[in-house]
Amino acid sequence: MSDYSFLFGGTTGSTESTGFSLNDYASIKNGSYGKLMKAYYKEQKSDGKTAEDVKKETQSKGTEYSEIASLADKFGKTADKLLNSDLFELKDVTRTDENGVENTTKEYDRDGIVSALKDFAKSYNDFMKKATNSTNKNVARRAENLVGQMNTYYKQLSAVGVKFADDGTISIDEDKVNKLDVSALKRAFSGQDSMLGQIASKVSQIGTAATSAAKNLSGYTNKGSYAATSTSIGSLINGEA
């Protein structure tokens, strides 16, 4: 018979820290608690859901929330390529002319800037598609708030080559970006106080909310399975108790 005394910190006094009474302890030791909970979750018909339905739903939500958190992290890395880089600084570029003479001039890496902006747009779209449709109300609400913030930036972002579609996705007008003064691009996309910095901060907060939502699922682990502890709802559903 398993020893559950660790639930009480090795004492026989108050059990307030665990939420278990001595009667609960006795029922766990003799197996009646586990049998009772198994029967309950197998027969529970509230909302028309069986224990297996609850298990599948929990796993689905856990996968969803973990994916949102992962996409938020990916967006953060993509944004960093613009926020904390030297893309907006002049660089020495050496070219050889038709006569074999080398000439060095200071230029901006326009191709690098456009590439980084396209990555930003794609990662934003991928993230928002998942976050705005989240089954978690807190995550979805925060994502909708970010949509509102993007709308307030509409004119400013449009001025630096960001195009808005009717479905809320964004894309980059490459021709416009290449014609812009790089200082304007730097103001919009470089540094934590820029528009991109503010957007990245919101995305990070949503990712944190999604991570918390996954952790708060009863019995769920970040590997998409149920915790195998003797008192978890997950273990009871899995028939492990």
- How is the biggest beta sheet arranged? 2 strands, antiparallel
Tally of strands: 4
Termini separation comes to: 12 Å
Residue share in β-strands: 5-15%
Overall helicity: 55-70%
Mean pLDDT metric: 81
Number of helices: 10
Order of adjacent strands in the largest pleated sheet: 1-2
Structural class, judged by helices and strands? mainly alpha
Overview of the structural elements:
The chain has 241 residues and is mainly alpha-helical. It has a domain of 165 residues. The protein has 10 helices and 4 strands, in the order H-H-H-E-E-H-H-H-E-E-H-H-H-H. Strands 1-2 form a two-stranded antiparallel ribbon. Helix 3 packs antiparallel against helix 4 and helix 3 runs antiparallel to helix 9. The chain is elongated. The N and C termini lie close together (12 Å).
Outline:
The protein is mainly alpha-helical. The protein has helices spanning 22-29, 32-43, 51-83, 110-131, 137-152, 154-159, 174-179, 182-189, 195-215, 233-237; strands spanning 91-96, 102-107, 162-164, 170-172. A hairpin with a 5-residue loop joins strand 3 and strand 4.
